[in-house]
Amino acid sequence: MIRVLLVDDQPLIRSGFRALLDLEDDIEVVAEAGDGTQGLALVEEHLPDVALIDIQMPVMDGIEATRRIAADPALAGVHVVMLTNYGMDAYVFEALRAGAAGFLVKDIVPEDLLHAVRVAARGDALLAPSITRKLIHRYVAQPLSTATGAALTELTSREREAVALVAQGLSNDQIADRMSISPMTAKTHVNRAMAKLHTRDRAQLVVLAYESGLVVPYGH
What we know:
The protein has eleven helices and five strands; from the N terminus they run βαβαβαβαβααααααα. The protein is of the alpha/beta class and 220 residues long. It has two domains: 125 residues, Response regulator (Rossmann fold, 3-Layer(aba) Sandwich); 76 residues, Response regulator (Rossmann fold, 3-Layer(aba) Sandwich), CATH 3.40.50.2300. A five-stranded parallel β-sheet has the order 2-1-3-4-5, sandwiched between helices. α3 runs parallel beside α4, α8 packs across α10 and α9 packs across α10.
């Protein structure tokens, strides 16, 4: 059972999402909150698999709530998906850097919402490569830290190849096919790269791949 927490200051949004999610046999909404502070407390209480959190809220915004969730080792199993009114919201990239697994536009169709929750619960990134490239092109301005740059040099050639394929939106099975290895080996390459680069999940790995120049956005 996938346990979901809803955090949004608009009651109609919460009730609409809850109505959709509660119809599914494999998804359960465990709680809901109207601001980031309450949402963070409920995350700590319920330890949901997926937290759907609005970016802009009173008291504590979604980015700060996500940052605190990502920084708490006890909440490592919580996958945060940000909710935004605009697909290219200027806050989206900041949310990904804070530790979000991805983002959804609030007018998403029901089928895509359900798919997104299941993808996030598996620990995969909710980042379409085309959207990621636009985000990186538009919002990445600061240089990599010295520590991150040094960590990149520690990746093996196969790990670098796996990271590049993750950034293209491929799953472990697809990476295995492309690299002619087993899915388990593909997963190992990805996990080792995440450990070396100190990324919390695949979403942050994707962002770092573009930031570092390991993958270059189309059009550059």
